[in-house]
Structure formats: structure tokens, C-alpha cells
């Protein structure tokens, strides 16, 4: 029910917000390369665009500067990261609605096998969410008492053995992506065994 009635609207809003964000990043790139007169209309508009987008672009600029890459590409990197974030966030929301619909169907039909399948699928989805949050938290500094500290404590027993097999490459932790693919495979097995 939620997957068919509410999720399409959330999907449209999520991609709409990304579209606006992408437009701002592209506008910033164009205005940076055009280098308009700072005292003219376009220059003042460019300054406002830069001021609004700076908090999103600055971490990417700092990252590119460490590798001696032109920081004018930072809005492009920020847009790519926003694309990945939007995709995964919408997948998580859609997956949550799917689990809620499945649990409801299991209760309403009195089918314990369906209910158990969706409980296992939901727990694996929660693990995917925690690993995704852990992946995002690598960009921030946080203490042990924070929410990201809790996420790190929960995901460490799973990520550390995988990280020993595949160490991080620079700032990119490929082991988390490999683990997400493995969990996705387990979810498909759960769906075939319990639901279909």
C-alpha cells in the first residue's frame, strides 16, 4: 500500500530536489568559468550562488586540493556524490515501505512464513542502512557518544573482517560496497525462500 501510494510521490520529490541541486552546481561551474565582473549583475548573482552552495562544495574542494586537482571541478564531484546519496536514500525509503507492506500482508493473511521472511529481509535492510550511514560518516569527525559512534560500534564486527580482505583505497572503502552487494544477494535468497 505504502509502496504504491506514497513512495512514488517521495520518489518525485527526492529527484526534484536533486534536480534543483544539480542545477545550482552546474550554474556555479558556468559562473566560475565565465568569471563575470564582480560588481555587475551577473557577478553579484554568481556571488550569491557561490555563497549558497559553498557549504556543500567546500569539502569536495578540500578533497580535490589534497590531490592537486583543480578545485573548479568540486561542484561536479559534489553533484556526483549528491546523485549517489539521492539514489541510495530513495532506495532505503522504498525498501522500508516494501518491508512495512510485506509485514502488513503477512499479518492480514495470517501467513507466518511471509511474516518471518519480511522480518529477516527488514533486519538485513536495517544492516544496509547502518553500513550506508557508516560509509557517509567517514567524511565527518565524530565522538564515540554520538549516533555515528553507535553506528560504528554496530558495524565494526561485520566491516573489520571484510576490510582485512580488501583494505581501503585512499578515502574510498570498497569493502563496504562489497558487503552491501553480499547483503543484497542474501536479501534475494530470503525473498525466494520465504516470500515467492
Can you walk me through this structure?
The chain is mainly α. The chain folds into two domains: 1-90, no CATH class; 111-196, no CATH class. Helix content is 82%, strand content 0%. It is built from seven helices and no strands. It has helices spanning 2-5, 7-34, 41-66, 74-109, 112-137, 147-165, 174-195. α5 (112-137) packs antiparallel against α7. The two termini are 18 Å apart. The model has no long low-confidence stretch (mean pLDDT 86).
Quick one: biggest sheet?
Answer: none
Order of helices and strands: HHHHHHH
What share of the residues lie within helices? Answer: over 70%
Could you list the spans in which at least 5 consecutive residues all have pLDDT below 50? none
Oligomer description:
single chain
The count of domains is 2
Number of strands: 0
Please tag this protein with its features.
2 domains
Quick synopsis:
The protein is built from 7 helices and no strands.
Outline the secondary-structure elements:
Layout: H1 2-5, H2 7-34, H3 41-66, H4 74-109, H5 112-137, H6 147-165, H7 174-195
Amino acid at each position: 500500500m505504502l509502496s504504491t501510494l506514497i513512495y512514488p510521490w517521495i520518489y518525485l520529490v527526492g529527484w526534484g530536489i536533486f534536480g534543483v541541486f544539480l542545477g545550482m552546481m552546474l550554474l556555479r561551474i558556468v559562473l566560475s568559468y565565465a568569471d563575470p565582473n564582480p560588481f555587475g549583475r551577473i557577478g553579484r548573482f554568481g556571488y550569491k550562488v557561490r555563497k549558497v552552495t559553498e557549504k556543500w562544495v567546500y569539502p569536495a574542494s578540500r578533497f580535490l586540493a589534497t590531490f592537486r586537482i583543480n578545485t573548479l571541478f568540486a561542484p561536479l564531484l559534489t553533484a556526483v556524490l549528491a546523485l549517489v546519496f539521492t539514489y541510495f536514500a530513495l532506495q532505503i525509503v522504498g525498501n522500508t515501505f516494501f518491508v512495512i507492506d510485506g509485514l502488513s500482508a503477512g499479518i492480514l493473511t495470517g501467513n507466518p512464513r511471509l511474516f518471518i521472511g519480511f522480518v529477516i529481509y527488514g533486519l538485513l535492510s536495517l544492516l544496509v542502512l547502518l553500513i550506508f550511514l557508516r560509509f557517509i560518516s567517514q567524511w565527518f569527525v565524530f565522538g564515540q557518544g554520538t549516533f555515528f559512534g553507535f553506528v560504528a560500534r554496530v558495524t565494526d564486527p561485520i566491516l573489520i573482517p571484510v576490510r582485512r580482505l580488501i583494505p581501503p583505497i585512499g578515502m574510498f572503502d570498497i569493502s563496504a560496497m562489497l558487503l552491501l552487494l553480499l547483503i543484497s544477494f542474501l536479501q534475494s535468497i530470503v525473498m525466494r525462500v520465504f516470500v515467492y
